[in-house]
Amino acid sequence: MEERISGAEDSIENIGTTIKVNGKCKKILTQNIQEIQDTVRRPNLRIIGVDENEDFQIKGPANIFNKIIEENFPNLKKEMPMNIKEAYRTPNRLDQKKIPHDT
Question: For residues 22 and 16, what is the distance between their CA atoms, to the nearest angstrom?
Fold first, then answer.
């Protein structure tokens, strides 16, 4: 009886360890997928001269485009709702490993 309990406790401990390892792997794989998606989707738009502060990183270009449209076309927003069809993130930093170097 005691051996069964000990075996069950060991199994539970192993399962807990496996869950922690899988959680870490999932986080890393999710980041890798996001990086791949960010680099594959190339029709990205960068707005030169716009400070990419924390607010910009959270809300993205959609917020800036809405401000530009409101300032330049004040009646347009009243006539029809504005929506962005597609918007992709670009990586926050440049990965030097992924840049092709001349050899």
Answer: 10
Render pLDDT for 36-47 as a digit per residue (tens, 0 to 9). Answer: 877 776 555 566
- pTM of whole model > 0.90? no
Q: What is the pLDDT of residues 6-16, one digit of tens each?
A: 888 999 999 99
Number of folded domains that form the chain? 2
Range of the domain at 1: 1-40
* Listed residue (44, 54, 53, 50) closest to 89, CA to CA: 44
Chain-centre distance of CA 37, in angstroms? 9
Residue 11 and residue 32 in one domain: yes
Residues 60 and 84 in one domain: yes
